[in-house]
Specification:
- This protein is mainly beta.
- Strands 2, 5, 8, 11, 12, 14, 15 and 16 form an eight-stranded mixed sheet that branches.
- Strand 14 and strand 15 form a beta hairpin.
């Protein structure tokens, strides 16, 4: 029994001693390895500080001639590992650069926050200083060209000149680069267009020899725009007849009237969905009582908004003829006025007017001066002697003839 107890105590003591030995060994290993001095070459990013101050002087960094910077660090393994997993930068201050040209500047190491910089020393570097090429800022206004290649969905659709904005862009950067630029081209390739398109398109810079100038990755070149807003207008062509409206009276109708319009049609273009519903263009109205048997009038050709007149004619001549009718003249002395101003009296100075009457020859013979009267409206007519517009009317007889034309009578108006 005693022997078994002694054996258990002896085994327990062994494990305790063994655990202590292992812990001490591990502690010694960690202390030795973590504090073991290590040397590493680490690539370092060059960061430019106070670039805005440099730009305010009209200067910019054309290129960093020290392209790659590698620094050799020495320190405890744990700090070196933290350094390698962090982000080390070399900061260059641009605030004191006074002029264009090459400049060699010192740099400051910016340590990651997790690293104890006091435990690390610098044993060497690929470059002790950073060399920069400084250039003057050069601004130019560059003209924009749009180059559309493609087609439409049908032959009656046409592509009109592109509309775009802006027409010029500002390019800012080193003179040696900016001076090479001739213009800007917006290349657009679309096929089978059936309606206008509007979009923001990228552009390319073209040099003096007509070749594309690639500035990709060149941060010293600044463009005022990244895209150009372009509209490619697609228009439908269509020949549309010209039309004049006739205001008929008693003696005329479509059956006994001929109308000739020169030109008869105009060719126009516009947005397909707009122009497809346009079947005629109204020139105006002709009052058939305003002339005898024929007249010729000139009308402006007014194209609806947003449509283009491809034919180019701006006026149309319209000739109207009345068929199968005759003209008779009657001297009328039955002259009257209406709407005499309140508190005034009038005197008709004109004694008689020759009135033209249109109709069939058989009907014209039945019309006498007694069947005609001429009436002038004195609304808004002031005092004094004045010529007033008047119209002729038929009364006292049933007939198919009508007086035509406009007349004037002279009237004197005085206050009571």
């Amino acid at each position: 029994m005693l022997k078994e107890k002694l054996s258990k105590i002896s085994t327990k003591a062994f494990y305790i001693v063994f655990a202590i030995i292992v812990s001490v060994a591990l502690w010694l290993y960690v202390e030795i390895t973590e504090n073991d001095m290590q040397t590493r070459e680490i690539p370092v990013e060059i960061v430019l500080r106070n670039l805005d101050v440099l730009n305010d002087r009209g200067l910019l960094v054309s290129s960093i001639m020290t392209e790659n910077l590698t620094i050799t660090f020495e320190g405890p393994l744990v700090e070196i590992n933290r350094l390698m997993s962090g982000h080390v930068t070399a900061e260059v201050n641009l605030a004191n650069i006074p002029s264009a040209g090459p400049h060699v500047l010192d740099y400051d190491i910016i340590w990651p926050q997790s690293v104890n910089a006091n435990a690390i020393s610098i044993r060497g570097s690929s470059a002790d200083r950073v060399t920069l090429l400084i250039d003057r800022i050069y601004d130019r206004q560059i003209e924009v060209h749009v180059n559309y290649t493609g087609g439409t969905a049908s032959q009656d659709l046409v592509i009109e000149p592109a509309e775009f904005d802006p027409h010029v862009i500002t390019v800012r950067g080193p003179e040696e680069i900016i001076s090479q630029i001739s213009h800007v081209v917006v290349p657009i390739l679309r096929e089978n267009l059936s309606s206008s398109i509007t979009d923001d398109f990228p552009f390319v810079l073209i040099d003096m020899e007509g070749q594309e100038l690639d500035i990709t990755g060149n941060e010293s070149v600044i463009l005022s725009h990244e895209t150009i807003r372009v509209t490619i207008p697609i228009r439908l062509m269509k020949s549309v007849p010209l039309f004049v409206e006739l205001s008929h009276g008693t003696t005329t109708s479509q059956a006994n009237t001929t109308v000739r319009t020169t030109p008869e049609f105009v060719t126009i273009s516009g947005e397909p969905e707009v122009i497809r519903n346009l079947n005629q263009i109204m020139l105006g109205t002709i009052d058939m009582q305003s002339f005898g048997l024929s007249t010729t009038r000139t009308f402006p050709i007014i194209i609806p908004n947003n449509l283009t007149n491809l034919s180019g004619e701006s006026e149309a001549m319209v000739s109207v003829e009345v068929l199968g009718q005759g003209i008779a003249f009657r001297s009328v002395n039955n002259l009257q006025v209406i709407n005499v101003p309140t508190g005034h009296r009038y005197e008709i100075v004109t004694q008689s007017i020759d009135v033209r009457v249109r109709g069939l020859e058989a009907d014209l013979t039945a019309i006498t001066p007694m069947n005609l009267r001429v009436i002038a409206d004195l609304t808004d007519v002031g005092t004094g002697t004045t010529s007033v517009i008047a119209r002729a009317y038929i009364h006292g007889i049933e007939t198919s003839v009508e007086p035509i034309g406009e007349y004037r009578i002279v009237v004197t108006i005085v206050a009571d």
